[in-house]
Amino acid sequence: MTRDSDAPEAYADLLARVERIANVGNASGLLSWDQQVMMPEGGTPARSRQLSALSAVQHDLLTDEELGESLADLEGVDLTPDQSAVVREIRREHERAVRVPTALVERISSVASETLPVWREARKDDDFDAFAPRLETLVELKREYAEHIDPNRDPYEVLFEEYEPCLPLHHAEEILTQLKETISPLVAEIRASDADLTTDAFTGTYDTDRQEELVREALTTLGYPWEHGRLDVSDHPFSMGTTFDARVTTRFDEEHPVDALLSTIHEFGHATYTLGLPEDAYGTPLGEARDLSVHESQSRLWENHVGRSAAFWDRFLPTVVDHFPQAEGVSVRDAYETVNQVHEDNLIRVEADELTYHLHIVLRFEIERDLVRGDLDVAEVPAVWNDKMEEYLGVRPDTDAEGCLQDIHWSHGNFGYFPTYSLGSAMAAQLYAAADGEIGGLDAHVRAGEFDPLHDWLTENVHRHGKRYETNELVRQATGEDFTADYFVDYATEKYGDLYDA
Q1: What strands, in cross-sheet order, belong to the sheet with 231-233?
Q2: CA distance 137 to 416
Q3: For residue 115, which of 44, 212, 19 has the smallest C-alpha distance?
Q4: Out of 267, 296, 303, 354, which one is annotated catalytic?
Q5: Whether 255 is catalytic
Q6: For residue 4, is pLDDT > 80?
Q7: Which of 8, 127, 366, 378 would suit a FRET pair with 494, their CA atoms being 20 to 30 Å apart?
């Protein structure tokens, strides 16, 4: 047992070890970013080995006996609240990691890296059979991973904790069920409605170079600090980085300029969270984001509560017209209705409307859960996917490229990730309501192009805490209430009821 007088030295030793782990992980993240953005196609064999080696190094550092001894030395020691939070987070990661062989971690990383280009080609060629063997291998490897951590628990629950360790899976399922039970009948009412919305305010062809200029201006308008980030193009939009360097990517379609704009605003939300983490806590859990549900709350808040708002379009529509004169004559109401329409042929998740998006998530959650539990074979995925699309969204994909091959996540082996998108949306509504209640008149600020009040509130109540609090406690600290989907239900019901007289 370490004496309290020795605690500062023991804690400092722990932090030094943890910072090395964080730096290896961040270096791995940059290599992954490069693979998805800039690396030539032929670089995959070397990159898979590089990422595999780094994952093994990170795992070895996390499972090192001396790290375990440092944690043991701090048992029962009187620590500050921040120190206790750091030790709690490191202990959780260490105790999970020591149960998994380094060779398995290395194998998963290598297979995932090699699978990425296979997925790209399979999606391009609409060839699920080319991707299926890789997917099957990743499912088997992740089942093995979960079994090492806890052979007596549901393997999907174990994998879900990789992305959301602080919320029980049953809590996530309750929220997903509440969203599904709210959204499904609301969508039925909307489709039965005879409301005459503008849905084609931005029809036509929009040059992708000009689109890039537009989304760059949007990032500047929202307050993205270019000295700490960059914008690039990738097959699947994402954000990655640290509090010093948080990069975003997007993708462009000549016929759908709004998709790129909203996608970029979404990734801005991720990046601004990362950049809002305390610099002096870099390399420790207090300088890391509180897992993916909270991360998604930030992206969905900026994308939906800001980017899809009438106030934002009142502010930003003139900028759109400056870049694309063909949008001259589009009114703010036209733009607002177009970006918030509920699509009838809603096939692609990242292009989905705000409402039916969650039915996409429920579908993916159910499929990956059954895959990991062994209740569904990989070969059955296309048919099950298409059946669920027809049942939940009233549309059936004609190809696997617009069906089960559309998302990148399974090619990374990221099973358990998808629920965090809907959890984040629910959390975003709760956080935005609290921010509006404290700041007052957020719509007026957005309309005036004043984004600092919202950004500062989020930094003060969410970003700066890192992993100081577990998820529910962070939400309680920020809003005064436990995490609930009620605010999203109220928000969605009111917003879409108004739009569609539903």
Answers
A1: 231-233, 245-250, 239-242
A2: 16
A3: 44
A4: 267
A5: no
A6: no
A7: 366
